[in-house]
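Internal ticket #5521
Category: modeling
Description: The requester needs a full-assembly model to guide mutagenesis choices. All entity lines are attached below as received. Residue total reported by intake: 848.
Assigned to: D.W.
Attached entities:
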Amino acid sequence: MPKVTEEHTEARRRQILSAALTCFAREGFHRATMQDIFREAELSPGAVYSYFKGKDELIAAIAAEVVRFALGLFETLSRPGPEGRLHTPGEGFAMLVRAFRDIDLSTWAHRTRLGPQLLAEAQRNPALRGRVREGLGRGVGIFAELARAAQERGELDPQLDPEHVARLMLAGFHGLLIQVSLLGDVVDVDAYVKTVAALLDSRAATRQTTPA
Amino acid sequence: MPKVTEEHTEARRRQILSAALTCFAREGFHRATMQDIFREAELSPGAVYSYFKGKDELIAAIAAEVVRFALGLFETLSRPGPEGRLHTPGEGFAMLVRAFRDIDLSTWAHRTRLGPQLLAEAQRNPALRGRVREGLGRGVGIFAELARAAQERGELDPQLDPEHVARLMLAGFHGLLIQVSLLGDVVDVDAYVKTVAALLDSRAATRQTTPA
Amino acid sequence: MPKVTEEHTEARRRQILSAALTCFAREGFHRATMQDIFREAELSPGAVYSYFKGKDELIAAIAAEVVRFALGLFETLSRPGPEGRLHTPGEGFAMLVRAFRDIDLSTWAHRTRLGPQLLAEAQRNPALRGRVREGLGRGVGIFAELARAAQERGELDPQLDPEHVARLMLAGFHGLLIQVSLLGDVVDVDAYVKTVAALLDSRAATRQTTPA
Amino acid sequence: MPKVTEEHTEARRRQILSAALTCFAREGFHRATMQDIFREAELSPGAVYSYFKGKDELIAAIAAEVVRFALGLFETLSRPGPEGRLHTPGEGFAMLVRAFRDIDLSTWAHRTRLGPQLLAEAQRNPALRGRVREGLGRGVGIFAELARAAQERGELDPQLDPEHVARLMLAGFHGLLIQVSLLGDVVDVDAYVKTVAALLDSRAATRQTTPA
DNA sequence: GATGAATGAGTGTTCATTCAT
DNA sequence: AATGAATGAACACTCATTCAT
């Protein structure tokens, strides 16, 4: 009992989760077997099962981590930037993509594979579904807020529905993951982000000026 | 039951494919068992296996159909509309979503579930991967063309990279499927399409005017 | 009813049996499927099933044919040859091998494969077992008779047990089929026959000469 | 059940192999199901599959054991006996049959059934085929050697082709298995062996006397 | 706490056989 | 008589999970 500290426990959890993530990204949730994970983690079945109740819990834990990451990011996005105003939608979008690309708890390639799988799996797995919906809802809320703020500052066409601008931003992100996971480096992520941001932001500044 | 031909055979194929689609949409490719499909199709294992070589071929056939549909649609999009000019990107996007929503070979709900699954599955399944990549490539090509034409007509900011505008359009579509599959009717598809189209099209008319 | 004559019926039976024999020799009794046979016979399942009750009956019919052939041959062997005396064991052995090799109702290669399979299958299949035992018994009987006659003529060591000489002759035949089926042309059948015959017969030639 | 090793593993392998051998001898390779083997071994499917990759490997392992046994025996036969000379062909034959009859890793009845099946199966199964050919080749080589030595000692008719005498000896063995598997105790194995040995050996003694 | 051999329900698939036409 | 689409029991095999040590 004194032997095993909390740190040890947490380290083991991370070790297992990391192995699982690698396997899931490599093979998909269903094709990856628990044996694969035991091997990747260099741990016995019993060891893994004493930290997680089963495969579903492993998937859920990974999903939870991804969603937690996203929620934290949204939180950041909802706070004014250094210039003292809320980020523009374009800035927000760029920050989302970049933050997601720069985490180090696994490679960008792994994450682009995992994202679409998680999204697809969430359709059927109630535990995932709740979490993912929460993340989605929060994302739409934040981005809609940015859009509304931009409209108020006269930087975005006031006729556009902020909620649906927000949905497009999320879609733009999810769709990017899909394209990268299937096409790899053919997709120039930076150029994509720049184009999307330009489309979202340049927008109404123009508008505003125009009519007058 | 001898001397049955062509129509009968084709009808059976459709019956099986339709049952498979229902099961895959309901349970996911991996969780759906062949038994589920036999039951849904009200056919015996042997009957199904005499039309398709196995589960993989069933998945491949469904993917092929989806991709074929998309390619046909892209073909339509690449031809000038009634006004004698190419469709604007916004029109193109709206046509894509609406066409996909209005096919009747199964419900919209089924298709929104199937899409993300197909995209996720394509990561690991080489047969799917090739097809999906082809569809993706063609889609980017067509939408980029529309974007370029719009730029030439002075309707889209010439600074935007047409390829990445096209990628965003595809992403906007895939992301929509994801959101609808997870959130259901919470998503107002028509409003979404209108917003995206407005964002894509209104654009440069304004721009044009601005500099002055 | 008038349409289909008995000849027609018999021709169909032979057509089916011949196809089955080809398939069984090519794939083995268990691996060969009824579908293979339908294809080989260019006949529908129903057609085949109206002539034979099932796969087992097909196997039984082929076995029956082989055994009938062997029994006919043994009958011939049991009758005195042109010189007015019974054949020597060596002559008998040579006649057995040559007769079996020269039937034309299928190739020698087919028959060398079928033989060992039939013998193995007879262990478990009661219908075959009875027939094969009958053939075996008759073979031992005939060859033992030849051996006894040779002993009486002073051409074979009288100390040898005729029954077991007969068993060796049959074994020499079955073992030849095995070797040919596994080694193909590596086995020089004629040289083998000559050697076996010499071993069985020469014996007494010596003997003959001796007394003098 | 952790920390089990070597002996345990080897014991399990033998337990499974033994169960498989029993089932194969009882039902034949194809009719025996894996379920039969699980039941006979009193083990679960997973347990069996963790020791052997599949049914084919089980068959291959059994074949390997039989061939290994035969090769070891041939090795023994190729060495001079107590009298300082090579065994006569008749002695060699008797040793082969007796050694095969006296192993205790399963009953003689089982082995007489397995032999012909293995020989038949080897026709189609390339893995078996290679092994069996090797055993056959070695057997012919050894027996031919014994025959040649006997010829040199003046104990065997020098006109006989040693290779084909050897083939007859192998055939005499395989054919014995066939007869015993089909006829059971009707066959007096000892008398058979004595007769065959006498035929092979007594031979030239006679010869010797003749010329004079 | 950790091990890993063992479990067994469940999977995708095959194929001898039937029977409406 | 002949067809061939359809059946469904049976098969080989997988893999998430357990538990004696």
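Resolution: model delivered.
Comment from assignee: Chains C and A do not touch (no CB pair under 8 Å).
Ticket closed.
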